[in-house]
Amino acid sequence: MRVVIQRVSKAEVKVEGKIIGACELGLLILTGIEEADTEDDAAWLSPKIAGLRIFSDEQGKMNLSVKDMNGGMLVVSQFTLHASTQKGNRPSYMLAARPEKALPLFNTFVSMLERELGKPVATGEFGAHMEVSLVNDGPVTIIIDTKNKQ
Predict the structure, then answer these.
(1) Is 80 among the catalytic positions?
(2) pTM of the predicted model as reported, rounded to 2 decimal places
(3) Rounded to whole angstroms, how far apart are CA atoms 138 and 3?
(4) d(Cα 77, Cα 100) in Å, to the nearest integer?
């Protein structure tokens, strides 16, 4: 699994002009699932995200997690995170999982995040054309790939 995590003061996702998911202070998590991903990837990733200390404490140091801040999460599926651009100018998405594999794993990942956060997590609509808007706070943007655990 590959995620792009953005610390936000607010974020929302629209489908056909209607807001279907939103959060205020918290994290926007763009999520790409590849064919090789399993529930083990989601199980490793969910506590890592919930515990990331990327929010400022009273001294202005990034020392608090989204859980510490009682923040929210908005999780949006994005298969294009697995784009390969090695050949030519048209990206290949061969590594991205097919919907029949990706959707159940995406839902499992969201459930794991909800357990870690202790409250519901907002999402986009899997497979839909979405409009995502956000105010990146910082900016703080972190990329995590479960195949490259650094």
Answers:
(1) yes
(2) 0.95
(3) 18
(4) 14
> Which tokens sit at 115?
């357990």
Q: Which of 20, 118, 36 is nearest to 76 (CA)?
A: 20
Cα–Cα dist 70/92, whole Å: 38
Q: pLDDT of 49-63, one tens digit each? A: 999 999 999 999 999
Dihedral sign for Cα atoms in the order 15, 128, 130, 33: positive
Q: Which of these is catalytic: 80, 108, 141, 146?
A: 80
Distance of CA 96 to the CA centre of its chain: 15
Residue 42, C-beta contacts closer than 8 angstroms, at least 6 positions apart: 1, 105, 108, 109, 112
Domains of the chain and CATH, by start: 2-145 (3.50.80.10)
Lookup: tokens for 51: 């515990």
